[in-house]
Amino acid sequence: MSADDLRKDLNALPCDPAVDRLVEEIIGRVADKWTMLLIEILTERDCARFGELSRACTGISQKMLTQTLRAMERDGLVNRTVYPVVPPKVEYRLTELGLGLSKAFCGVWLWAEANYDTIERARKDFAARSNGG
Fold it and tell me: In what order do the strands lie in the sheet with 78-83?
C-alpha cells in the first residue's frame, strides 16, 4: 500500500471528540515507560506483589511505582487484591482491559521488529548527514 493510500485510509476513519480526548489520555498513560514495563511484567507473570514489581522495574522508586499502579487501577488496567493476612499481602493483576492494551501494544513491537533494519539505516543516514553537513 502506498503512503498516499495509507494516509487516505487513516484520514477516512471516523472522528469523535470524546474518543479523541480519551485516546490522548490513554496515550499519555501508556507512553509512560513505567506503565509499559508494568504491563509487560504483569502480562508475563499473570500477577505480582508490589515488591516483585519493584525488583522487576529496575530504577523505579517506591513512590513512582505506587503512583503508576494507582493510575493503572483508576484507568481499569489493573486489579489490586488485598488479602486479610499479617503481614499484608497485596497482588496486582491486569484486567481484561489491561490485557487488551498489552495485545494492542504487541503490534508496536511487531512493527518495530519488522522495521528494525530500516529504522537503523535511517538513523545512520541521518547521523551521517548531521555530522557531515
Answer: 47-49, 89-94, 78-83
